[in-house]
Amino acid sequence: xxxxxxxATDGSAASEGAAKLAVNLARVHGARLTALFVVDYPxxxxxxxxxxxxxxxxxxxxxLAGEAHGKVQALCAAASPAxxxxxxxxxxxxxxxxxxxxxxxxxxxxxxxxxxxxxxxxRLMLGSVASKVVAESPVPVLVAR
Length: 145
Description:
α1 (about 15-30) links the parallel β1 (about 5-10) and β2 (about 30-40). Helices cover about 50% and strands about 20% of the residues. By secondary structure, the protein is of the alpha/beta class. α1 (about 15-30) crosses α3 and α4 runs parallel beside α6 (about 130-135). It has a single domain (about 5-145), classed as HUPs (Rossmann fold).
């Protein structure tokens, strides 16, 4: 049923749980799995004010992306049969926009995202990447808690 699954990963516990689910789905369906990491640039002019600070920010973001991709890749390699793994990184966009854009551009059948399960005021204050992706995605979205 699924041929190409997109897992949004940021290395958090919520995204690790979602990655396990996505890898299992990809294994069962013989689908390829794209692990997406989104680097959302700070809004406070970090590069304009301090090129060194922006360089440090990007180095840290790339390190986090590598770690997050590495976790998903390890899950894909450990699956039997192994899952076809493809890392992807997008920059300078919000997580929901990067995820939905990648879903459109890459022609995926399913997007899997983790949810921190925030409710009430915390959800209103912080927003919800998962709920924004559900609202904007061109394909079905599976939200893993």
